[in-house]
């Protein structure tokens, strides 16, 4: 009976988790990271996002199949542990937690910067604190209230992106007034489609993977999703189509309208630059508001994901049981508060670290998303050998070729990124992974001594 009281409620629907995945993936990576990706790869950034989208499709299909085969799973660890063993599951849980905590840390400061655009007299730390408290309160409400908030925040972002796409194609293809249709000549007229060669494309893949990261949060919603064996595959299909559309098409518009070498170094987002070309009054304020909502939405998903990792760890006795305690609204209140406390500490560190904080965190987060996708893909390859007798209502077509493609592509990207990324980012990320591994070994020895 006590166990039932401590169980999360299955109140999230396909509509909720689809928008949650979009909320996690359409955030600072799209609106803030777009300039960096375009500067690295030029027009070939389109190819980078297409490759990333195909890899994401194959990884998420595998995740959906494993979720359907294991309907009792609550999170990633439950899907992976029975297939790959305890260490990969442990490692996956903690790097996933680290990913979201670092992400919401970076985005709280970025959100404060965008708010300061309207409130220049307020210091960054007060605005960052305000955003952090707001996101915490939303998560402490019932799961349904959280999901509804995330749904509407994501819907606002998507609506604006759709308006952006329509207006962008009008600017590209239609001549009116003083405006002459630009067409697609900018894709090749400034150093070619690959102005920085293959190295630029490979380097941009780190931003691409970071940008798409967050979609796999569907794997954390299993314990709070009605009929996950039906809902998860449907959400995966609809989410992937929308994410690839909302990245590829906007980037096509940006690099076609604006020469790629004029995007970086400008303080405003490429999205604001295009809106100004449209001639909408107050375009900078409109896009500033949209970017702010996008970041709050991504933080919202991030705090949800990180707190659920702690909750399941506590339920299994891996961390103190207090973190499995639920409020009357059936949310893991102490897990949320711990993640929030780390967020506040991170905000202070980010403020002292200066303007490069987001770039460093984005690099580390890109590595983490790569590792998460690799573990999911490897688990999927082995899953049918572990459970060959089970028939599934959802099965990946062309298995195992699609999943092996994802594994090989991710491995190649990882090797390329190691040689093209800052040694500081790589070293810090490696140190975090080593620390997680040491804690696993230490806990194992501790349990052996107790036995």
From TrEMBL:
Pfam families attached to this UniProt entry: AA_permease (PF00324)
* A single cellular component GO annotation: membrane
**Keyword annotations from UniProtKB, A to Z:** Amino-acid transport, Membrane, Transmembrane, Transmembrane helix, Transport
Superkingdom of origin organism: Bacteria
Q: Which residues form the Amino acid permease/ SLC12A domain?
A: 16-426
The portions of this protein that span the membrane are: 46-68, 100-118, 124-143, 155-177, 197-219, 240-260, 286-311, 331-354, 360-378, 398-417, 423-442
The topology of this chain with respect to the membrane is: Multi-pass membrane protein
Subcellular location per UniProt equals: Membrane
Do you know which InterPro entries this protein is assigned to? AA-permease/SLC12A_dom, Amino_acid_permease_CS
Gene3D superfamilies, alphabetically?
Amino acid/polyamine transporter I (1.20.1740.10)
One of its GO biological process terms is: amino acid transport
Q: Would the keyword DNA damage turn up in this protein's UniProt record? A: no
What's the protein here called?
Amino acid permease
Task: Name the species this protein comes from.
Answer: Viridibacillus arvi
